[in-house]
Amino acid sequence: MEQSKIITIKNLVKKFPVGKGFFIALNGINTGFEQGEFAGLVGPSGSGKTTLLNIIGSLDSPSEGSAEVLGYSVGSLTHKQAAMLRRQHIGFIFQTFNLLPVYTVFENIEFPLLLMNMTATERTKAVHDAIEWVGLGDKIKSRPAMLSGGECQRVAIARAMVKKPEIVLADEPTANLDAENSHHILQTMEKLNKELKTTFIFATHDEKVINYLHRKIQLFDGKIAKDELIKSI
Questions:
Q1: Residue 98 sits in which domain range?
Q2: What pLDDT digit, counting tens, does each position of 149-163 carry?
């Protein structure tokens, strides 16, 4: 059975003004992603990984070309429409965790659900499910300062996954973790990918992450240098 394509990128160019000219961060990108992929944008700093991830996540828009995500043309969205797309369909995982320090683990994970039309009972069940996925049931009332780096990143994963988004975008998610925690985090994400059929797209140059990828897209100077399938979906 053919997988459904949920992201289509055509002739994508992204320019940033620099002085009197422009810096071309992405230069004619053509690619796409199927439902349930575990893929990575890999390459050195400045290759365009984060820029491409931000456009897929509707945090930025193309200068030229198109990026279609779940049927929405990113370049045509208003700020309100882009926020709705992110809120309902996309989860984000950052290297700095971005947890709210005064909130407990439960409250941090619940936060994205407060923006959705869910009852308190529905939110509580969803949070408990997400906490169970990442194995932090004993930390539910803890605040971020009481957690290790690996535990904070697991909370960030649970927060990204709690609404069961179709797409999760992870920007250098293991950058602040040691090897053991990195492997635990990646195994958790791979498990959620298989169980929930969530599409994961990483931006990384970490070999630990690259070794888990099912598909590797190498970027260099804003262009795709190589796109290879390592493991089938």
A1: 5-229
A2: 889 988 999 999 999
